[in-house]
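Lab meeting, item 3. Inverse folding demo.
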């Protein structure tokens, strides 16, 4: 029963990590949408500027507050940002004006003379790609929520932070972004997703150590007739428990099997994002497994060092007056 409840606890934590990772992944637009589909609308399908050279840029701190306030008055939870090929806010790649927000709305419309400079990460307004108005229906029409425009900016900011800063500086930059009004929700979802992933790694390692300690006592109380039988029974128990916590639970939490009964779907069993061992599975779940294996392999050494350098010296200091 103790082993069962430890495994259930592991499953709950890993399942919660899977749910938060799925929710965060659903907020990330595709690269083709951010790099091609949306910029095409702001450039009016022009080929004079390379699509991969333009990015959304924000005003400097002296103007950001007033411009964001105007955007918020038009569209709640929106902020001011424009596309620029030189990353210069004062040299945008298109003409922007607040009047376009009242006439065309928050979505960019192909062949417009001016565009709305307000973008949002929460708007559910549906926008159309440039191919939706193409002559003779050339290309496939793509509909996307206006929130994807702001999410593209936030995801680009997140990628820049993670690739350009050292871990300590990246953490500080994430804290700054979380406190800002532009991408706070996006960065909170990222932090929650990453936090639950690392928490589940720690829980699995701790539960594995507790089960090894407990299973040794359990196996000894089975009163085997030889040490070989006792160690063999212990090895089988540890293998089965580790296999369940490190492999079976992960497959159940992150796997996806359509057509299951509603009771299993309600418990988020086999409702994860991966229906097969895809490249994305190896990038996300594979990273989780490898990190768990590495931490598990070094945890006995870490525990021994903790005992030698911390616990034993403290015990000697506590017992010294009595011995003297």
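The presenter then showed the designed sequence:
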């Amino acid at each position: 029963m103790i082993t069962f409840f430890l495994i259930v606890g592991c499953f709950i934590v890993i399942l919660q990590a899977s749910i938060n990772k799925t929710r965060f992944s659903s907020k990330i637009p595709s690269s083709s949408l951010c790099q091609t589909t949306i910029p095409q609308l702001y450039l009016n399908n022009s080929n004079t500027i390379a699509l991969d050279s333009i990015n959304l840029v924000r005003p400097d701190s002296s103007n950001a507050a007033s411009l964001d306030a105007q955007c918020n008055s038009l569209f709640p939870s929106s902020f001011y940002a424009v596309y620029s090929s030189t990353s210069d806010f004062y040299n945008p790649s298109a003409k922007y004006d607040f009047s376009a927000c009242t006439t065309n709305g928050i979505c960019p419309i192909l062949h417009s003379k001016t565009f709305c400079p307000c973008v949002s990460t929460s708007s559910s307004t549906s926008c159309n790609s440039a191919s939706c108005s193409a002559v003779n229906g050339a290309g496939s029409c793509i509909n996307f929520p206006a929130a994807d425009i702001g999410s593209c900016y936030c995801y680009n900011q997140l990628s820049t932070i993670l690739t350009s800063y050292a871990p300590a500086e990246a953490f500080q930059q994430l804290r700054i972004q979380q406190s800002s009004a532009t991408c706070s929700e996006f960065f909170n979802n990222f932090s929650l997703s990453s936090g639950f992933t690392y928490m589940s790694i720690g829980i699995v390692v701790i539960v594995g150590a507790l089960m090894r300690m407990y299973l040794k006592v359990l196996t000894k109380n089975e009163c085997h007739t030889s040490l070989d039988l006792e160690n063999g029974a212990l090895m089988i128990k540890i293998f089965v428990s580790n296999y369940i916590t490190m492999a079976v639970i992960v497959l159940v939490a992150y796997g996806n099997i359509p057509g299951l009964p509603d009771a299993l779907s309600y418990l988020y069993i086999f409702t994860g994002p991966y229906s097969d061992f895809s490249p994305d599975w190896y990038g996300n779940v594979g990273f989780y497994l490898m990190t768990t294996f590495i931490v598990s392999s070094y945890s006995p050494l870490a525990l021994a060092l903790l005992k030698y350098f911390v616990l034993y010296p403290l015990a000697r200091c506590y017992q010294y007056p009595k011995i003297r």
